[in-house]
Amino acid sequence: MSRVLLVEDDERIVGFIKRGLEAEGYLVDLAGNGEDALAMVRETPYSLIILDRVLPGIDGLEVCRMLRREQREHLILMLTARDSLQDKVEGLKGGADDYLTKPFAFDELIARMEALLRRRPSAATSPVLKVGDLLLDPTSKKVWRGEREIGLTAKEFRLLTYLMSHPGTVVSRTRLLNNVWDLSFDPETKVVDVYIRYLRRKIESESEAPLIKTVRGFGYVISP
Prior knowledge:
Structural class: alpha/beta
Number of helices: 8
Low-confidence stretches: none
Number of domains: 2
CATH architecture of the largest domain: 3-Layer(aba) Sandwich
Mean pLDDT: 86
Radius of gyration: 19 Å
Helix content: 25-40%
Shape: elongated
CATH class of the largest domain: Alpha Beta
């Protein structure tokens, strides 16, 4: 489970982002100014920092520069109300990995975060994912349902990994296309539905309880 530091002083934005990220399965810590953010980053190995550019005290751009001078390699997604090219260039030169202009849709924030997290694989051993009696080992690329080992293609494995990384969360077809097929648009094909059927045939025998559910009009969810 990824731990994220949200550095933002606007309480409305904090509430909106925090609730959304926690619903997606992230652990979220909060900092309302640059000083607190620096202290927290120095103590905690965050997977990603969502950093507002305009902050009381030390601003977000300087926080970013200080972290890079300290050779801290945390992923940084900078938020700003400024949308000029020069502002974006300054943020990226200051060490931000990506730049998102306010206002933004929550789905865009999630897509940017997940793209950054995919770009930098964790050095630690990935934890085994578990939903009911279904186990997936990201390191060995093996899957078991109880005592039964299941063979999957690379794309099936990637799809199942994404679903199992968000247990109990309804995942839309658009997000699956973005994260499994690296498509930023819907090509109006049935590829997601087809691969969901492939997975169901392999992980759900007649004697086993179904794990992948269709939520009509929204997407899919995996849960015991």
